[in-house]
Design a protein that fits this description.
The protein has 123 residues and is an all-alpha fold. The chain is built from 5 helices and no strands. It has helices at 3-28, 33-39, 43-72, 77-99, 103-122. The model has no long low-confidence stretch (mean pLDDT 96).
Length: 123
């Protein structure tokens, strides 16, 4: 494995870890301080939106699982899985950034785009 592939794998791993973190916040901590800090919701709004947040968290878990699959699968499957799931991360980040909160552009779309670029350049 060359330095470019190692860098790409580290970035993919970090994006996967980020999505596991988001899963935990949205599925298990939404009504507590960390989750409310993420959303900015008061206790009543957090309680009312918890089922929706848990659903979003589950989707973030699927993204993380796909990225981990891409890291452990042999090529060409691993490469293709990384490109697909990073593309999903970037698209979801762009959509969320433009429709929900601009912070999502930096927190999700940018890391996904950097990892995607590294993966594409490493092959």
């Amino acid at each position: 494995m060359n330095a470019e592939e190692t860098t790409a794998n580290v970035l993919v791993g970090l994006v996967a870890a980020l999505h596991v973190y988001i899963l935990v916040l949205e599925m298990f901590l939404w009504e507590r301080k960390p989750g409310r800090g993420l959303s900015g919701f008061d206790a009543d709004m957090a309680r009312a939106t918890a089922p929706l947040a848990a659903n979003q968290g589950l989707y973030n878990g699927f993204l993380a699982a796909g990225l981990v699959w891409g890291l452990i699968a042999d090529d060409p499957t691993g490469f293709r899985a990384q490109v697909f799931f990073l593309g999903c991360v970037v698209i979801a980040g762009l959509y969320g950034g433009f429709t929900a909160n601009r912070r999502i552009l930096v927190a999700q779309a940018l890391p996904g785009a950097l990892a995607l670029g590294a993966v594409l350049l490493s092959r």
